[in-house]
Amino acid sequence: xxxxxxxxxxxxxxxxxxxxxxxxxxxxxxxxxxxxxxxxxxxxxxxxxxxxxxxxxxxxxxxxxxxxxxxxxxxxxxxxxxxxxxxxxxxxxxxxxxxxxxxxxxxxxxxxxxxxxxxxxxxxxxxxxxxxxxxxxxxxxxxxxxxxxxxxxxxxxxxxxxxxxxxxxxxxxxxxxxxxxxxxxxxx
Length: 188
Hints:
The protein is mainly beta. The protein has one helix spanning about 5-30, and strands at about 50-55, 60, 75-80, 85-95, 100-110, 115-120, 125-130, 140-155, 160-170, 175-185.
């Protein structure tokens, strides 16, 4: 009986074919570029997305995920039980970045009832706190040297807006510049 295949030749051909198939597969696989994980400001929205962000002294601040068990720490109220007016607060943590401590940004503005721009330098209506690296103490007060709070959406359960200001810690003399601020929060 005569053999149909010459095994050494068949074995070599199948090895070469297998290598060619593997080479083609490896070249045809296209890898997705790595996802961009660079933090950015949240988009400007007016839907109650519970977002907030700004630059403080050129450093991006958004609410930190790991400070609260329930997600990013962002709190807002309008005429709540302890606040008369609009109050918003976020905690941000710079672990592993330029700063090493906890940060907080707080704004209070009393008596607005509609969309529009409001002057944050009015000491009778506005208060801000900018705490970088935990520098803030409860007794510290801040003077807003210039600044505006613009309310872009004012509904029963949603307040959205933009803000920018320069504030001085009256105790330490440190001045912080806050730019490109935005928020979109649900109000209880």
